[in-house]
Design brief:
Chain lengths: 169, 620
């Protein structure tokens, strides 16, 4: 059965690593739901959070193939919801009236979002959270008229004191 | 010192003796610096052949094979050869020139994203961004190519990096630490223990040996392991010869073109011990019906191969040689204990007990092997099938051509080679891809892993240049390449390289004037023939002569044996064209079918309607 898997990957922070990883996924028909990349506390290491869907055999291959890449330092499948996950979404909503603006502000407050831009016709909200929270917010404001959405994709870390060590000096 | 000079120093430090390549504009500085080196450079006639030569060199020498091509078309011409090495885990270092870094991305003359192109067909690749990194990267490239599961590594070098001065003196690193690359070589003790238990509990064990055994130089260990337990061994194409095929435990090739014995044993066994193989579709046939009764143990250095195609009960990641050594050690200990116990208690039951009792299975293996031998041996009818055929070459001229039955031809080759080298200690045979390859795989019995073939990618045009590469790795060995007429023509320009350097390789061309393998597949799948008749192939004798290479055409069994022996002993570049009966098709398992369902395609001459250009024009 296809399940959603969140894989966290530490890679050497070098040019073309993303190309290598996305190429691996494309060539083997592994479908990426989302991928985020950013630096870590170590300037030589970047962290990727990859969300894939597939059964356990599929996941095993994804992990093993990722592990084979020379620039991949560590790979871990974040299991059993034992992690914190966040996604950033910026959404521009049609809001030509004061009542509309006020309604959206209310919604944003409930969802702990922030208003980051305002114009006569629109209001732009920044919201972070897990995928379902962001989807819920978007569903709520959709009837008002979403003009544009930018989502970062998911990033995640394990809960508690557990960390993914890079072993790299 | 500039980048090119540093590159030469780095290659010399890696022990590189020979480079196969083709120069180009961006490589001028490299070729200039090469003049001051003792390394040999072989100027091939096409970069694809350079890569195959480096591959052949690597497979036999155990060291990395180095090839080089210029930017753009030079790099893209290397691609097929590098992809071939990738699929067969061969440690090739592929160097490419690149346009100057200040114009990368401008679609400059002869610019191509070779870094991107080589990425999916190499174990790893680099693009050098500053001359100071060159030496370290060459060390890393060799380390990655030759350790763990070997494979090709590509290094792309912009021209200004090669001409640019280094800011510091060259220091060759003795050791290099690639923190993210640490292959596992030692098998996990718990998995070893589980393997031993599974073996002791089995009644019908079978070993499936792949190319990983040869790569790990683990043939001796494989034999000792098999003999300790009396377990039969079948092999994949790449594993062919890792156990002597004349040994009583060897059951021959398995898979699509496998022997009756091997394919049926896989179907019947209750424990399949796979060593260094990747369960390709050519080996498994229909995966859901592969080894249906067996528990599967899979030893491989590449964890990603385990469980990829076939689900595995006991995985062991590590070097095949090391794992087998550990297993043998444990087995010997167990055997000693067993023997001590049997003698000390000395009861009737114990005295008759065996370490691992698979005598019933051994009887079954013996019977299946006998059936296989019948099928594989040459019948009197086949021997006499060398036939006389009338062929109309031109309207007035009627030519009589004799042809040899392909099975007879393989046995002739085998006899001739074994007459010269009875233990096959000093002989290597390369094959091309197609029926010539499968005939060799089915009928030629190797006493050691002396077969060099393109198993994974199935690259036509591989066999002949690979043989030239092998000759540089083992200059004193007899090197024979076997090709079909189609495959030979794909890199026949290397006759010029062979002639120019006077490389003593015997190139045997099986000429059936057809793309025999596709013809066979067409027969099996839909029985309609299309585009498989090569028709007027060139006169290979004249072709060889035009390069100044000695050549002979043979069309009967006696001549083939004698000519091959003569050519090998002469130790000169030699071409032998063997006229083959094109109507013969080898037994095959249809793609995706169960391994035990071998079918014999209808033997018929390939024929597709020949339409001349002038007649085609009307359709344009």
């Amino acid at each position: 059965m296809d399940k959603r898997h969140i894989i966290t990957v530490l890679v050497l922070h070098k040019p073309s690593v993303l190309q290598r990883i996305s190429g691996l996924f494309a060539r083997r028909w592994f479908n990426i739901s989302s991928i985020t990349v950013g630096t870590t506390e170590n300037p030589d290491i970047a962290r990727m959070t990859i969300v894939v869907k597939g059964d356990d055999t599929h996941l095993e291959q994804v992990l093993k193939q990722l592990n084979k890449l020379v620039e991949v330092v560590k790979v871990k499948d974040l299991k059993h919801n034992n992690y914190v996950e966040r996604e950033l979404c910026i959404v521009k909503i049609h809001a030509p009236t004061e009542s509309g603006k006020s309604q959206i502000t209310q919604y944003a407050n409930i969802f702990r979002g922030s208003i980051v831009d305002l114009s006569a016709e629109t209001i732009t909200v920044e919201i972070t959270g897990d995928e379902s929270k962001i989807n819920a917010f978007l569903d709520l404001v959709r009837p008002l008229g979403i003009k544009e959405v930018a989502r970062t994709g998911l990033t995640a870390l394990m809960r508690g004191s557990k960390i993914l060590k890079s072993n790299k000096k | 010192m500039n980048g090119a000079e540093a590159l030469i120093k780095a290659l010399e430090a890696e022990g590189t003796k020979v480079i196969f390549g083709y120069p180009g504009g961006v490589l001028v500085s490299f070729y200039e610096s090469l003049c001051d080196s003792n390394m040999i450079h072989i100027l091939t006639r096409h970069e694809q052949a350079a890569a195959h030569m480096a591959d052949g060199y690597a497979r036999v020498s155990g060291k990395a094979g180095v090839c080089i091509g210029t930017s753009g078309p030079g790099a893209t011409n290397l691609v097929t050869g590098v992809a071939t090495a990738h699929m067969d885990s061969s440690p090739v270092i592929a160097l490419t020139g690149q346009v100057s870094s200040n114009i990368i991305g401008d679609d400059a003359f002869q610019e191509i994203d070779s870094f991107g192109i080589f990425m999916p067909i190499t174990k790893h690749n680099f693009q050098i961004r500053q001359a100071d990194d060159l030496v370290d990267i060459m060390r890393k490239a060799h380390e990655i190519a030759t350790t763990g599961r070997p494979g090709p590594v590509h290094v792309d070098m912009p021209s200004d990096i090669l001409t640019g001065e280094l800011s510091k003196a060259v220091k060759i690193p003795a050791d290099i630490n690639i923190s993210s690359y640490k292959p596992t070589t030692v098998g996990h003790p718990l998995q070893i223990k589980k393997t031993l238990e599974a073996i002791m509990n089995s009644k019908k064990p079978l070993i499936l040996a792949g190319g990983g055994v040869s790569i790990a130089h683990a043939s001796e260990e494989l034999l000792e392991f098999a003999e300790l337990l009396n377990i039969p061994v079948c092999t994949t194409l790449m594993g062919k010869g890792c156990i002597s095929e004349k040994h009583e435990l060897s059951t021959g090739l398995t898979g699509m073109h496998g022997t009756h014995a091997s394919n049926n044993l896989i179907d019947k066994c209750d424990l399949l011990i796979a060593v260094g193989c990747r369960f390709s579709d050519r080996v498994t046939g229909k995966v859901s019906e592969f080894a249906p009764n067996a528990k599967v143990i899979h030893m491989d250095i590449d964890p990603a191969e385990i469980g990829k195609n076939v689900s595995v009960d006991i995985p062991i990641v590590g070097d095949a040689k090391r794992i087998l050594q550990d297993l043998i050690k444990q087995l010997k200990k167990q055997k000693r204990k067993h023997e001590e116990l049997s003698t000390s208690e000395n009861t009737l039951e114990n005295s008759n007990s065996k370490f691992l009792d698979i005598s019933e299975w051994s009887d079954e293996v013996k019977k299946l092997k006998e059936e296989s031998e019948k099928e594989l041996s040459v019948t009197a009818e086949e021997k006499q099938k060398t036939k006389e055929t009338k062929e109309t070459k031109e309207e007035e001229k009627i030519e009589k051509i004799e042809k040899i039955h392909p099975k007879v031809a393989i046995y002739d080759l085998m006899e001739a080679i074994y007459d010269i080298d009875p233990e096959l200690e000093n002989t290597y045979v390369t094959t091309d891809v197609g029926q010539n390859q499968m005939w060799m795989a089915r009928y030629f019995k190797f006493k050691k892993d002396a077969l060099i073939t393109s198993g994974g990618l199935g690259t036509m045009g591989f066999g002949f240049p690979a043989a030239l590469g092998v000759k540089f790795a083992k200059p004193k060995a007899n090197v024979i390449s076997i090709s079909g007429d189609g495959g030979f023509l794909m890199n026949s320009q290397e006759l010029a390289t062979m002639a120019h350097y006077d490389i003593p390789v015997v190139a045997v061309i099986f000429n059936n004037r057809a793309l025999g393998m596709v013809h066979q597949l067409q027969s099996v799948l839909n029985n309609r023939q299309s585009q498989i008749d090569l028709g007027e192939t060139p006169d290979f004798i004249q072709l060889a002569h035009s390069y100044g290479v000695m050549a002979e055409r043979v069309s009967n069994s006696k001549d083939l044996k004698e000519t091959l022996k003569k050519a090998i002993l002469m130790n000169k570049p030699y071409v032998i064209e063997v006229m083959i009966d094109s109507g013969y098709a080898v037994k095959v398992v249809a793609p995706g079918a169960n391994l035990t369902k071998m079918i014999e395609p209808e033997n018929k001459e390939p024929c597709s309607e020949k339409i001349l250009f002038k007649d085609m024009v009307s359709k344009l």
